[in-house]
Amino acid sequence: MxxxxxxxxxxxxDDLTVKNAAEIxxxxxxxxxxxxxxxxxxxxxxxMQALFARMKECxxxxxxxxxxxxxxxxxxxxxxxxxxxxxxxxxxxxxDSVAKICxxxxxxxxxxxxxxxxxxxVLEGNAExxxxxxxxxxxxxxxxxxxxxxxxxxxxxxxxRRIVSGLDAPVCIAGSVDSFARLDEVLRTAPDSxxxxxxxxxxxxxxxxxxxxxRICEYIDRFGTGETS
Length: 229
Description:
Blueprint: E1 6-10, E2 12-13, E3 16-17, H1 21-28, E4 35-39, H2 45-57, E5 61-66, H3 71-84, E6 88-93, H4 96-105, E7 108-112, E8 115-117, E9 122-124, H5 127-139, E10 145-147, H6 156-166, E11 171-173, H7 180-189, E12 193-196, H8 198-201, H9 209-223
Parallel strand pairs: 1-4, 1-12, 4-5, 5-6, 6-7, 10-11, 11-12
Antiparallel strand pairs: 2-3, 8-9
């Protein structure tokens, strides 16, 4: 049986960290969300390190999501994650070199699958090919998969279901969860986790960012009891 699907709060907009990420975290640090992260751009490294340290002080699990595709950029992202002391490196295309850095430094590694391009990212490819790619990555050192399901150019819901059901490993559905209808769809699919970033800044779930996070966390809890649609 899978454990409850968890929210990962991303302090990002259009795949870039928001400039006031530290202030927003302080306003929201007491919400039930236990996993927090942001992207590798554009904050200076000292600011990233300070914010991740603060998140850890508050008992949060931390994640850096790196939007990079070629091996040198992915290695650079992994090295940034190490310097920031995060718990999870999300993103990058899978490379043995990146998996090695994560293993040597005690980071969980959850790479992208499929053909990913652009920023904000777009996902293309065949579901079965992605599933095979995910299994290869998992057998070569990845700890889970960062699935850009709602950035997919095809049938996103079908892709999410196929990848989640086809893997005996954590899957994070990352990006563009921007409505309660889509949240319902995610929770029915039952991945290990999902991210919400830009939608919070677009007020997709109603209220302040703190109120939206609290509402989403409550919604996840109610979903498990059958109290939501």
